[in-house]
Amino acid sequence: MTSDAGNENCLGWAARDPSGFLSPYKFNRRDVGVDDISITITHCGVCYADVAWTRNVLAHSKYPLVPGHEIVGIVKCVGSNVQRFKTGDHIGVGTYVNSCRECEYCDDGLEVQCSKGAVFTFDGIDTDGTVTKGGYSSHIVVHERYCYKIPENYLLASAAPLLCAGITVWTPMMGHKMNQPGKSLGVIGLGGLGHMAVKFGKSFGLKVTVFSTSLSKKDEALNLLKADNFIISSNNEEMKAMEKSLDFIINTAFGDIPFDQYLSLLKSGGVLSLVGFPSEVKFHPASLNRGMKSISGSLTGGTKQTQEMLDYCANHEIYPNIEIVPIQYANEALERDVGVDDISITITHCGVCYADVAWTRNVLAHSNHEIVGIVKCVGSNVQRFKTGDHIGVGTYVNSCRECEYCDDGLEVQCSKGAVFTFDGIDTDGTVTKGGYSSHIVVHERYCYKIPENYPLASAAPLLCAGITVWTPMMGHKMNQPGKSLGVIGLGGLGHMAVKFGKSFGLKVTVFSTSLSKKDEALNLLKADNFIISSNNEEMKAMEKSLDFIINTASGDIPFDQYLSLLKSGGVLSLVGFPSEVKFHPASLNRGMKSISGSLTGGTKQTQEMLDYCANHEIYPNIEIVPIQYANEALERLIKKDVKYRFVIDIANSLK
């Protein structure tokens, strides 16, 4: 029968632009044709594809976009030609809703491989030219061919993830005969797809090994999912021990993997199957040729395979692990790489630091870490921030949170080592990625409130350059008016030391090798004195005149000469990195002088500095550049051709 049900407004949740933010949206579903089924949607799974399409990751999203392709519900009404379903039946719809129905693939029930292209459940172009709308909605109208019977004894909510995550791993496993007991299976990644691969593997009687970068997944893999083995993929000894042991590996992860290493784990004739999407596939041909191994790809399954999988899961009581949430939680669900204590931040600006030069060029053989932006969403335990707040992230994003230093808010000195914002090894074994990016997810503890009256772009350099000089100055009580401060170097750090010094009421002397810095120091930054450090007469005249010297330069300096400029009890503080520190002990002993080092500040100090700068209107001198200028900015930084800090306009240039 036909029905006027399609004329009713359908209520959904849609993204309107590449921010991916979902909100209520009314639209019309088509009328129910003779071969169609109208389905009242009860549940819809949340898939990574929903994130990718709502945020236009593949650059072809069509807005407004209603995501969702793991759809289950109850048959509302059926067209006159429909044979397999009746009103009230439990029903499912997966990743596609149409195909040509004529080609060899469609004839074989492999419609997803349709030679004319399957029509995907959302953001697809249907045969009538309309754009498909997905399952984040109240109902859907679908041709009978692309609908699946959900067995009455199987929970509808549990069935939803099977229609993408389940069938995506089922298809290659069945295609490569990995349902034969005794075979050995490797599963890379333990998310929605990975955990279903483990469940199918154990049901088939396979020996299952899970590979992950995160040690936190071990208990889940071995105790919850009953995998036989768990390997940290970055542990070369553990990986080496697995060589030539696996019949089949399924890669469910979206990150890049070392293909040659994983291929070495396969037995002769073994297969590595890709269902995730690494950025590239790259390996030596010998990794395949020696052992007649193969790499194969798979997307999802045909209608016949999908129904078989659903029936198998019902008969063998295989249920995905799920968390049921209301539609109002959809945005937070898509962000749920965000933990309960985490904050997802849309990055607006990121400062350019000399550390960016050092790390990108492997100078230190192994931090973009002046990050500011706007809170996108917060975890359920977060107290200090809310969506829309201005926020900053500095040089580190994790620590043990247990030692005496962490207890004192000096997390940068964590006895187990702070995790730096980029190129650090986090507690789960992953490598941190910094602020030359669109967004970042950080634990609340390592985030800072940027006062609303303070420009975000100006705040960025404070999170490294600012706090790096603030910390030793405050630690040595150099906020007392009338004291004398020497500043070596006049770059990003040095100019902030001058600004703080003048704000504190200090008498400030700048030391530089470059005469061109004199006008900047005296007239722009209002220093009291300027000394060319190679001029021995000028240096001699400064002996025993300074309470504190902060060395912000990374080049080598004559330590004995600078120590002679300190008063008795004076301190020379290093925040730059000369190649060596070398001086005569008498330079310290005569006058009870000290040399101290400092890196950056703790969370408490950093927030205090940000608040001070806002209250006293202290702003770093910056040059704002687009992300496309990053390489040139790093080159100019090396040449000291910046006054005094580059800040990348991430929000307006990273597309």
Structure overview:
The radius of gyration is 31 Å and the shape is elongated. The chain is built from 23 helices and 30 strands. It starts with 8 loop residues before the first strand and ends with a helix. Helix 4 crosses helix 5 and helix 15 (about 465-475) packs across helix 16. It is α/β, with parallel strands linked by helices and about 650 residues long. Residues about 1-5 and about 360-365 have low confidence and may be disordered. The strands form 7 sheets. Strands 16, 17, 18, 21, 22, 29 and 30 form a 7-stranded mixed β-sheet that branches. A 6-stranded parallel β-sheet has the order 12-11-10-13-14-15. Strands 25-24-23-26-27-28 form a 6-stranded parallel β-sheet. Helix 9 (about 285-290) links the parallel strand 14 and strand 15 (about 295). Helices cover about 25% and strands about 25% of the residues.
Please summarize what this structure is.
This protein is an alpha/beta fold.
Keywords:
alpha/beta; 30 strands; 655 residues; disordered N terminus; 7-stranded mixed beta sheet; 6-stranded parallel beta sheet; 23 helices; 25% helix
Uncertain spans, ≥5 residues at pLDDT below 50?
Answer: 1-7, 361-367
Largest sheet: 7 strands, mixed
Q: What is the averaged pLDDT score?
A: 89
Q: Tell me the span between the first and last alpha carbons.
A: 49 Å
Beta-strand content estimate:
15-25%
Pairing-aware structural class of the strands and helices? alpha/beta
Shape: elongated
What Rg is obtained from the alpha carbons, in whole angstroms?
A: 31 Å
